[in-house]
Structures are given as C-alpha cells and as structure tokens.
Amino acid sequence: MRTPAETAEELAGEVRAALRPGAVGGVSADVACTGTVAGVEGETRQENLFRLGAHAAADFVSVEMTTSTDVWMPYDLKGRPQPAVHQANAPRLAAALRDLEKALESETEPDDPTHFGKPTETGVENRREPDGTPSDVWSRFEIPSRTEVFRHAPAFRPGYRRTADGDVQYVPIRSEHGVLGYLWASDADSAASFEPRVAADEEGRRVGLAWLDHLAAAYDRGLSPSRALVELTGPATPPATLALTSLRELARED
C-alpha cells in the first residue's frame, strides 16, 4: 500500500506533466469523499459525503470542504428534530474540521450561509425563521430546484412544452413503493411532461428524467402529446383530466 507521501508525489507528477508553457495563474483540484453516517437504522455508507477542494495561486492557498447531507444539524432540512442523528454525527464533523486545522496549520473560516445551512467553526447550523423555528428549506429551495427540469424545456432543443395553461390528461406512474409521479399531456398547448411526487423523493425524480427521454423520442417521431401519453402508458390505463395547477398540488401532497 502506498504511503500518503507517495500518493501526493504521484499527484504532483501528474500536475507537472499536464502543465502548459507560460506562467502559472492558479491550480485547483477537488476530490469526492465517501464516508459513513449514523442513522436511525445504524451506520450507512454514503457516496459524496464530502467534497474536499484546494486552490493555489502565486500568493494564496485555500482549502474548502463541503458536505451533501444534513446529519450534522439538530434539525433536518425539512425542519424536523433529529436529536439522535445529530448527537451521533456532529462530533465527527467537528473532529474532521479540527484535523484539517492541525494538518493545514490554519484556523477554520466558515463560509457564507447557503439556502440550506449556516457553516460554523465546528459544523453547520440550521437556517431559522424570524420566530426562531427551524426552516423547511427542503420545500422552499430543493424541491423547486428539482422540479425545474420538468417544467422548463431546454432552450435549444425542440420538443414538447413542459407547461400548460388549462386542463391536461395524466396517468399515474407507479412502482412497488406507490405513485412516483404523473405523466401528463396537453394537445392544446403542445405540451407534455412528468410531475414527480414530492414524497417519492429521489426515486420519483430519477424515474421522471427517464420519462422525459421517452417523451423526447415520441416528439422526434412526430406524435401528438396525447398520442405519446397513450402509447407510452398503454391503453389499459386510460388518462384522467385535471388542471395542471391542481395536478401539481396533488404531487405535493404527502
């Protein structure tokens, strides 16, 4: 097994080999770190638990660590208390930050708050409402971000519109876990898309992206939105009709 020094020297060699002629303006690198987190069901392995990045310029060097989980906070991103999860994981993050300070011989400088949390010298705190209650930043920021792709078609790619003004035909898309979302179409607006259920979380989004690909293929074949809906879902599931605004409200129900 290689030592850390050998690994560092190998990386430095790759950087030197990739250098172009001329003065070096700056060098940046980052690495995705896998780790384990403690949950209500025990330890779980999580990909991209941290991302560690470094930037070096002629007179400045910085190291940045970001995280993609809320287990370090007293409340989850929906504002729900998670005392056991926080107690099990927050000390780990604090210890990691201390180790970085020691290795880099530098103090931790918390970055600016994001939509999801407020970095501190020892971890991350929840965003809070004016009355002090923890914010449901998941519904406020993450869900709109995740659904944007289903509501706005790419600007430079032909296809069905992904929004409609009135009623649409729709079919529920199910798995063994229940309804993941709704495939819908409107000939009047030349529109068709997928509306993922909020409760379906990442599975609903992943399945929805696959349905967008199917709709794109149907558009390329010249199918009308309603014809694409029937062909993709089959005659055994006749579409229902609902205003798109109401369908989106239905998708948000827990």
From TrEMBL:
Protein name: Uncharacterized protein
Annotated region described as Disordered, given as residue ranges: 104-139
